[in-house]
Amino acid sequence: MIDTIFHMALVLAMPPLLLGVIGKTKAAFAGRVGAPFLQPYYDMGRLMQKGIVLSDSTTWVFRAGPVVTLAATLFASLLVPLGRHAAPISFEGDMILFAYLFALGRFFTTTAALDTASSFEGMGAAREVTFSCLAEPTLFFALITLTRLSGTMSLTPMLQHVTFPVWLATGAALILLLAGLFVVVLAENCRIPFDDPNTHLELTMIHEVMVLDHSGPYFCCILYGAALKLYLLGALFVNIALPFSSGNGYLDWGIFACGMLGLAVAIGVVESVMARLRLIRVPQLLVAALILTAFSLVLVVR
Amino acid sequence: MLFFDMMRDPAFLVLCAIVLAGCSGLPGLFLRHGTLGQRLASAAALTSSLLALPSILYLLIGGGEASFILNWNFPFGPCEVALDPLSLFFLIPIFLIFPAGSLYALGYWPATSHNSEKSVTFFYGLLACAMALVVVARNGFFFMMAWEVMALSGYFLLVAEHGEKEVRTAGIVYLVASHLGGAALTALFASLFWITGSFSFPAPQSLAVAGGVTSTLFLLALAGFGSKAGMMPLHLWLPSAHANAPSHVSALLSGVMLKVGIYGLLRVMSFVPERPLWWGALLTAVGLTSALAGICVASAQKDIKRLLAYSSIENLGIITTGIGLFLLGEGSGNPRLAFLGLAAALFHVLNHAIFKPLLFFCAGSVMHAAGTRDLDRMGGLARPLPFTAFFALCGSIAICGLPPFNGFASEMLLYLGFFGEARSAAPFIALGAPLLAMVGGVAVIAFVKLYGIAFLGEPRTEAAAHGHEAPVTMLAPIGLLAALALLGGLFPPVFMALVQPALRSLAPDTGLVSALPVPPVWFAVAGGSVIILAAVLYLFLQGRVQGRSASGPTWGCGYLRPSPRIQYTGSSFGAFFSSLSGALIRTRLHVDPVRGLAPAAARLSYAPEETLLHRVVLPFLNIAGVACAFLRRLQHGEVQIYILYIFATLMLLLLWVH
User: Fold this and answer.
1) pLDDT at B101
2) What is the DSSP string of B469-510?
3) Which SS3 state, helix, strand or coil, does residue A54 take?
4) Is residue B551 within a helix (H) or strand (E), and if so which, with residue range?
5) Quick check: B577 and A130 in contact, CB under 8 A?
6) Which of B312, B268, B263 is nearest to B290 (CA)?
7) Dihedral sign from CA coordinates of B155, B161, B164, B166
8) Which among B555, B559, B561, B565 is the top mutation candidate for probing chain A, defined by the most A β-carbons within 10 Å of its own β-carbon?
9) ipTM here
10) What is the CB neighbour count within 10 angstroms for residue B197?
């Protein structure tokens, strides 16, 4: 029970902090002071206070988009274990539900984008669905590898199976898998090199361009949902990358939270040292990630 | 008295319903006022399904079976019709979609504005009746007769608007494909006759002959039934046929007739006791290919019904994959895989029979409103057609296999089958899961495009701007199907209860693994909480912005004179993905470039191409046509010589008999 409360508290409260850490890291690289760590929280609070501007061409689908996406992501947050602590909900095949809840969110985000009748948002929606259908098989290859390693088909036992001895035995495969997953985390969460969450220039954008017309509390929903998605996919990554358990439950929560912050720093570093890829290169990188995870499966099967 | 006793027999009721369905269009042929005939036909269709569906469910769940011998004096032996779980299962989609489509036709294809209504109504009933007869027939000859009636009524339905050249071409391609498939089936039943000495179907698992012979039978069945089910590369007839038929006909063709092909395949497989492993491998490969290629091509279409037709190829591919997994599991002694594969296949049969007609019905309403099938000329239809738009959204989510709708439940079973194999000694089969994930991803492209371009945004043409909502007779069947799709997604055990008896009859061993590996409560919990959470959030946010919302035009990024024509179109939405999938999807460009000093209007248009048909099959047929030119000399139009042919043939036959 306590674990569930901790789980929910972390999942609900921590995601925007990741964005703050990423921003601070990038500022440090650029030699700036940067916005405070809690800036994303302030932004979201401010957005909740505002009214909205609705486009004349929109219907209810436009408002349902952020709402359904956030609802699906919130339910998905119940399926991921955080560190050594089991997820509140866990059953055979929950990882398929996990992946498909994000797909449901994507369906609604992109239809809401098309609802604005803007060509820019249509462009973003087309790119989003195209890239995600290359990113999704990568996630499934990684899940197959984990199923093979752990012998289970549920996220909690699957991810908790990855312990230090398992790392020693199958380290090469896990490194390939992590590399693939890292690319997926970046691609699915509109980070550089796929997309730049800070610009609102139309020509190279994917995710940001789809939400140009959202405002006020609905935009807050989108920002929070996006942070939560980064948090959940990041948790998947950190669970594999940090196979440590202290034995003490409370300390494990701390280790996990530090792991997440470390991931945020890593993303910040990647964003600072890399430029955004040309659009035509993005599918190539995604296919490369697919091949990496496929190789990790080969290494595990061999 | 005898009659009333028989009426208490549910199996007899089903047969009565089949006959009633076949006769439903008859009164309309003789009545002068088409409207009355059409209403009578719909009433008959509803009655037949009210008679049939409860009886089918009673028999299926109660485990009843029945068989009747029609003692006609036919040369092919006693003609048996029987209701066993497999037949009953495949009767459900027929008696669900047939009345729904018949009701829908009242608003969609009214006698007052369509000359062809009488024939459409008549053949619509006949098609349903013939499909039901195919499913219950237990005699090869009778099966083929029903099969041909089914194929031909399908033809007459799809050429309802035969004034247009495109429709006639689609009809001819359909006829050729249908008869090539029919030829394979004739060979199949002739070989069965040769083996067993009777046209009656062999009892289940009783066909013990040499492996080579059964494999030939399997390949013949795959060619015949596979072409009806639209498996790639035998799908060539399907897209144009489904696109050009009236929408309620497309719904019946796509939602139900394709499944009759699956039924035939399962039925023929059930004759054979030992099914070789390579059957499963072949079906899995064919299924995954159809699914991926079908949905990739669908994502490039700009014709709303052609998109749906290609997505049928995808869904039938998923069903075939399930059957393939079943055979693989059975052949390798893995009851779990066998159960999951077959359960997923049968479950998806039901699901596709729900959401595909739903989407075809919505497409029909959209075409009524916008006056075109071209997605690029629609837009903004959610305002004039709010109900259709809502139901189409449900259908689109369901067909993408997303929670909380029914498509997710059946695809989940397939995924669990694939994932389970990751733990086995040879985890090749698990590689199907990423492919299936990719299929799901591309399905989202196709259906976001269909829904977003047709219903959302600004209307691109005048006609789309002044669309009108469909009447209640059209909305009622759509709403019912949408409710069923949600029911299947939240409470999959309801549908699994129908799947189980058929599953046990096909694979008695796998019946042991009768429980879903996922506790079904999680479907309800996940779907229910997402819906409730979304509703609560929606109301909360609506409350927060109450009185603080302004409206204005969409932000044009500094561009001040927006026009609906600058919106993303269906073609441009799919173009990025098409550019990645190269040879599979080609488009033909028609360019009238700007010429001269005072240029006339320039234009550019493009249409997706049927790559396989235009690049492979038609060139091949042209070569075959040249090669067979000498045969054409036999056919020169002189009747006397034709009579001579007949006479010579008769003489030869007489000689042969002696």
Assistant:
1) 93
2) PPPHHHHHHHHHHHHHHHHHHH-HHHHHHHHHHHHHHH-TTG
3) strand
4) strand B549-552
5) yes
6) B312
7) negative
8) B555
9) 0.95
10) 9
Do B385 and B455 contact (CB within 8 A), yes or no? yes
Residue B218 burial (10 A CB sphere; 0-12, 13-18, 19+): buried
Q: Which residues pair with B587 in a beta bridge?
A: B608
* Closest CA relative to residue B447, chosen from B407, B488, B489, B491: B407
Distance CA B566, CA A120 (A): 10
- B415: Cβ contacts below 8 Å, ≥ 6 apart: A93, A96, B433, B436
Chain mean pLDDT for chain A: 90
pLDDT in tens, B283-323: 999 999 999 999 998 998 889 999 999 999 999 999 999 99
Whole-number Å distance between alpha carbons of B54 and B77: 32
Backbone torsions φ then ψ of A55, nearest 5 degrees = -75, 150
The tokens for B238 are: 């399907």
Question: Which pLDDT tens digit goes with each residue over B89-146?
Answer: 999 999 999 999 999 998 888 877 777 788 889 999 999 999 999 999 988 888 999 9
Q: Name the token pair of B18.
A: 């089949």
What b/e string do you get for B503-533 counting C-beta neighbours within 10 Å, with b at 16 or more? bbbbbeebeebeebbbebebbebbbebbbeb
Per-residue pLDDT tens for A22-68? 999 999 999 999 899 999 999 999 999 999 999 888 999 999 999 99
Any B CB within 8 A of A139 CB: yes
Q: Which chain A residues are Cβ-neighbours of B300 within 8 angstroms?
A: none
Beta bridge partners of B552: A55
CA separation for the pair B332, B336 (Å, rounded): 11
Q: What is the pLDDT of residue B513?
A: 62
What whole-number distance in Å separates Cα of residue A101 and Cα of residue A107?
10
Residue A69, number of CB atoms within 10 A of its CB: 27
Q: Is A157 on the interface with B (CB under 8 A)?
A: no
Give Cα B102 to chain centroid, integer Å: 17
The strand pair at B79-83 and B66-70 is best described as antiparallel
Q: Measured between CB atoms, which of B422, B455, B530 is closest to A144?
A: B422
Rounded to the nearest angstrom, the minimum Cα separation between A28 and chain B is: 32
Count the neighbouring beta carbons within 10 Å of the beta carbon of residue A236. 23
Scan for tokens 């006959």, then name that residue.
Answer: B19
- Name which of B299, B451, B525, B545 to mutate to probe chain A: the one with the most chain A Cβ atoms within 10 A of its Cβ: B545
For B534-552, how does the pLDDT look when each residue is reduced to its tens digit (9 = 90+)?
Answer: 999 999 999 998 888 888 8
Please tell me if residue A144 touches chain B, with a CB cutoff of 8 Å: yes
Quick: pLDDT tens for A125-170: 999 999 998 899 999 999 999 999 998 989 999 998 888 888 888 8
Upper half-sphere CA count for residue B124 (Cβ side, 13 Å): 36
Instruction: Please name which of B357, B364, B372, B247 lies closest in space to residue B311, comparing C-alpha atoms.
Output: B357
Q: Residue A143 and residue B176: Cα distance in Å, rounded?
A: 45
Instruction: Identify the residue whose tokens are 């090199």.
Output: A193
Axis-axis angle for helices B492-506, B472-490 (nearest 10): 80
Spatial neighbors of B294 by CB under 8 A, at least 6 apart, are B232, B235, B310, B311, B312, B313, B314, B316, B317
Q: For B211-215, which contacts have Cβ atoms below 8 Å and span 24 or more sequence positions?
A: B211/B276, B214/B272, B214/B276, B215/B276, B215/B279
Strands, E assignment, chain A: 52-55
Task: Give A164-175 pLDDT, tens digit per residue.
Answer: 888 888 889 999
Reported as a single tens digit per residue, the pLDDT across B358-411 is: 999 999 999 988 888 888 888 889 999 999 999 999 999 999 999 899 999 999
Residue B182 near residue B243 (C-beta atoms within 8 A): no
